[in-house]
Amino acid sequence: MPRICLYPKDVATLTGRSYDSAKRLVRRARQAAGKPAGALVTVQDFCRLTGLDAAEVSAALNAPASR
């Protein structure tokens, strides 16, 4: 099943930012979506804030892990 929620670790991997910077970005995406603290952030919420393509982010998020 494809993942639709993003966590700071995912954002750090996708953007190349540090984990702390990714946490701030997830927090901003949550606030921009009008969600309460602790609510999950979806790919759509994140992409609305950053302007990234949701299909590309979803594909990267759901790609099999390289070993």
TrEMBL record:
Protein origin, superkingdom: Bacteria
> Could you tell me what this protein is called?
Uncharacterized protein
Origin species, per record, is: Hymenobacter glaciei
